[in-house]
Amino acid sequence: MAHSSRGAGAPPAFPRRGRGAACSLASKSSRGVSSQSRGGETEMLERLLNKPRLVVLEEPKERGMRFRYECEGRSAGSILGASSSETNKSQPTIEIQGPIDHLKKVTVTVSLVTKDPPHRPHPHCLVGKDCVNGSGICVVTLNPHSSRRHSFVNLGIQCVRRKELDASLEKRRNLNIDPFQTGHSKGIEDMDMNAVRLCFQCEFDWEDGRKDCLSPVVSNPIYDKKATTTSQLKIGRFNQYRGSCTGKTEIYMLCDKVQKDDIEIIFRRGSWKASGEFAQTDVHRQIAIVFKTPPYQDQDITEEVEVSVVLRRLSDQMESESVTFTYLPHNPDPYEVNRKRKIKSDISFSEKPCVTAESAPAAELPFHLHPAMMSPNERLCAAQPGASALGEMGYSEPQDSNNDSDATAILNQLLEMPALWDMISNPGLTSTMPPSFEQGPEANAVFANMDGNFNQNFGTYTQDFSHYNDLQFNMLVNEIQNPQPEGRDSPSGALQVKTEDEP
Q1: What value does the mean pLDDT of the chain take?
Q2: What's the CA gap between 393 and 415, in Å, rounded?
Q3: Which pLDDT score is estimated for 348?
Q4: Which of 100, 103, 97, 111 shows the shortest CA–CA distance to 152?
């Protein structure tokens, strides 16, 4: 019933638009036809048969929009079209199709109804530039002769708190908005607050002053993005994208919010399909799932096989975009133990030759490699046959162990060292030398058996160590830094302390 008088703050009255109104207008048109002449009767019948119709040319995008509360203090956003993309935005669009020769204007009322039939008025509200403040509906007027289409550029959905649901529905009834004449058939307990549909009610104004309306047209459902039961499913990433064709590969998946009792993981390729194995306890805080891969249909594959993996919600069969997973041929030795053993058995290891006091005569060894000056580890090092002992010690010229002149060549090489001649010319050192020092070829035995006094006097001279290799230089430094105390081998060398009792 329309208001006869309204105050300044009263909401505007809207004519009842529903099945009953459409039928009543149709009956009036039929009575007008009976009173017309035969020529007018034919024209009216053509109007009824060729009546224009409203078509949803661009459906709203089902997923990705968030329903916002009024108290959030920000815009509710705009409903995008189904074909909208990041680079090309589109909006829900309607079109008037059919003959429009005698049509004057078209009035379209848009409201929200429930997702499931019977489509009852939904308590959530539409907001935007074409919406009357506080009404929750949108009303646009079109001139079909200038444009048959209309896009709802700024149309958003504002959700209502639960304690305000009854008040919102009562406001809708006062505006005569009940497209399918459902009345008070059901309460709000079974309403889905996370899904709505756009309902378009179209009213025609003809040139002769008559009015006509069409049956309501509903769009595809629109789901709230923040609700886990209706949100868009999305796979973030896996910790690994390859696994054995025998299955049982444990994978960690990151995803958007999911319900642990309303989700499954599908592997498929062609006609083959299998589900990932996981329990409800493997769903971590709705954003991660730990599962095991199912075995592939062919266990004898000889090359890699790629399959698609999707998340699917059980309640509405909604699926996410697919992610590729690769099945690998079965490997009975995953840690490659047998291969490593074979490689190890094929490799022959050889020890590095080294010099020992036992493998070479004392005359062939440099003065600092005397057996008394070698460490236990160096004494245990075994030289391979045929290897030159002195060649490993850094001499520039190779030595032949079978040549009788080896000892003479080594002695000549030692005598060419300036530091050695400086030590020999030291009076303190020559006084300790045996008389046989200057007796020809026997001198090489003296160098091979030189005692610790040589090391003590060696550190007092400035020498050129560039011709020593690393091993020789380290041993000389150790001998200089750690000289042997005098009388170390003699028990009588201990320091005697005199007591008061002694005379």
Answers
A1: 74
A2: 18
A3: 53
A4: 111
Close Cβ partners of 417 (under 8 Å, ≥ 6 residues apart): 467
Domains delineated in the chain: 19-223 (2.60.40.340), 235-328 (2.60.40.10), 362-481 (no CATH)
Q: Confidence class of residue 281 from pLDDT cuts 50, 70 and 90?
A: very high
- How far lies 451's CA from each of 333, 414, 479, in Å? 62, 17, 12
- Structure token digits, residue 317: 């069969």
In this prediction the pTM is 0.52
* DSSP one-letter string for 319-346: BPPPEEEEEE---S-TT-HHHHHHHHHH
Contact 246, 297 (CB under 8 A): no
Residue 24, CA distances (Å) to 29, 106, 200, 211 in order = 9, 19, 19, 11
Cα distance between residue 79 and residue 51, in whole Å? 30
Q: What is the pLDDT of residue 188?
A: 76
Q: Which two tokens stand for residue 400?
A: 């032949």
First to last CA, the chain: 142
Residue 463 — very low, low, confident or very high, per pLDDT cuts 50/70/90?
A: low
pLDDT tens, 233-277?
899 999 999 999 999 999 999 998 899 999 999 999 999 999 999
